[in-house]
Amino acid sequence: MAVVEVTAALAGVVDELVQADPLRLADGETLQALHRQLERLAAVTTRAVAAFDAGRAWEADGARTASAWVSSHCHVPLAAARRRSQLGRGLRHMPVAETAWLAGDIGEAQVGVLAGARNPATEACFERDEPMLVGLATELRHHRFVRALAYWCQLADPDGTERSAEAQHAARCVRLSQTFGGCWALDGLLGPVEGSIVATVLTKIEDELFETDWAEAKARVGEGVRPGDLSRTQVQRRADALVEMARRAAAMPAGSRLPEPLFTVLVGYETFAGRICELADGTVVAPGALVPWLDRAWAERVVFDGPARVTDVGARRRIFAGATRRGIEVRDRGCFHPLCETPAPGCEIDHIVPWSAGGLTTMENGRVACGFHNRERHRTRPPPGAP
Ligand SMILES: [Zn+2]
Fold first, then answer.
1. How far is ligand 1, taken at its centre, from the CA of residue 350, in Å?
2. What pLDDT shows up at residue 343?
3. What is the CATH number of the domain that holds 363?
4. Mean pLDDT across the chain, nearest whole number?
5. Distance (Å) from CA 344 to ligand 1 centroid
């Protein structure tokens, strides 16, 4: 079949889907099948763009680059066209990823991250490890895959990892300037550790203000209070939280002891649990990024004896607190639900065997659960994979 006929046939099949009632397509199996075909088409298109780029047929139209031609004729932003072109070139060095993408086993997002991990310093390791990395991309949820790949980069190119951490650190900036009308404009960029410190404190104050706003709205409108009833929007609350942070900083007497921990970093024994060097929210950081903090930060040490560690700390208590709570937070790092990505700092600690059924308040019987999944368990049928 000629290519024209193939694309016409494809259009015909898509036409059928277009005419189908969306409700008929709205089941899990069909959604997965549609996503798979969407990715396969994206892979074919990307390969075609790279070949078009190399063939230079675009020159005849007076275009300066293939991306400019694609941007103009296919109505996509120039940056998106460039990105596809780059990805297509990258595919030439990633045969395993290319095959997996064409099969729909992985998607453009994973291929993009893989391409970003391959550079002159890592290309030899990449060639060796590509099947393993593509395997991870196929099996893991996207954010876990990104984390695993970040560790791979640290091992494949330790110097490069430290250099990019240094570059990130060097790029830190905050701009605070007064506008013509007398307001203040604020923006900037912080490194992973520094940003995590600021975000944690700011979020804590925001949460306090939210509680106040919620109580005030409840007093005003009664039990059926909704987010729309709150007196401030989320961004207004964050602005107020920042001012409150400054107010508290000014109120703190000189020489006060800093609260602990300022940030949590998980560092593992490579032989025990594989390489671990990440913040509590799952952001992988270069070991060197921690060095400036070693003499200033309060370090928190959590030691795990092994998966079967038995502890009865707080077994008679109903609420997870202190070391037991912290141990579970650091061990699980996020909500237990397989479809949830809420990191531990925004979660509660839940009994696996409920307290009412005799479950103990121990590390073994505790797990991190976001508010939604903690409540859901007590309300309806258990989610898939939950005990
Ligand atoms: Zn959850």
1. 11
2. 83
3. 1.10.30
4. 85
5. 10
Q: Whole-angstrom Cα distance, residue 268 to residue 149?
A: 17
Number of domains in the chain: 3
Residue 315: is its pLDDT beyond 50?
Answer: no
Instruction: Verify that 246 and 285 share a domain, yes or no.
Output: yes
Lookup: tokens for 176 = 């605070």
State the Cα–Cα distance between residues 3 and 127, nearest whole angstrom: 33
Q: How far is the CA of 182 from the centre of ligand 1 (A)?
A: 43
Do residues 204 and 265 both lie within one domain? yes
Residue 146 or 376, more confident:
146
> Based on the number of CB atoms within 10 Å of its own CB, is 347 exposed (0-12), middle (13-18) or buried (19 or more)?
buried
The count of C-alpha atoms lying within 13 angstroms of the C-alpha of 243, restricted to the half-sphere facing its C-beta, is 8
Q: Which residues, by Cβ under 5 Å, contact ligand 1, an ion?
A: 335, 337, 340, 342, 370, 373
Residue at which a domain ends, from 248, 270, 301: 301
Cα–ligand 1 centroid distance for 370 (angstroms)? 4
Q: How far, in Å, are 203, 286, 296, 359 from residue 260 at the CA level?
A: 16, 22, 11, 31
Q: What is the Å distance from ligand 1's center to 353 Cα?
A: 17
d(CA 16, CA 3): 20
188 and 163 in a common domain? no
Measured in Å, residue 338 CA sits from the centre of ligand 1 at 8
- How many angstroms is it from 380 CA to the middle of ligand 1? 15
pTM of the model: 0.71
Range of the domain at 359: 303-387
pLDDT bin (cut points 50, 70, 90) of residue 196 is confident
For tokens 């297509």, name the residue.
88
